[in-house]
Write a structure and sequence with these properties.
This protein has 57 residues and is mostly helical. The chain has a domain of 38 residues. Helix content is 89%, strand content 0%. It is rod-shaped. The termini are far apart. The model has no long low-confidence stretch (mean pLDDT 93).
Length: 57
């Protein structure tokens, strides 16, 4: 098992790269979810604003 994690002496580089890749993927997922939530909130506000305008007329 130690040989697997050592990766022929390159384990430090390989596992750092794997960790960094996972961190970037997680950050990308969080950013996409936040952007989606902001877009939905903005659209809901626009719909509410337009609905309020149409009921006043």
């Amino acid at each position: 098992m130690d040989e697997f994690f050592d990766m022929g002496g390159n384990g430090v580089f390989v596992w750092n790269t794997v960790g960094l890749s996972i961190a970037i993927l997680v950050l990308n997922l969080v950013a996409a979810r936040r952007a989606f939530r902001n877009t939905v909130d903005r659209l809901r506000a626009d719909i509410k604003r337009n609905t309020d305008r149409s009921t006043r007329q």
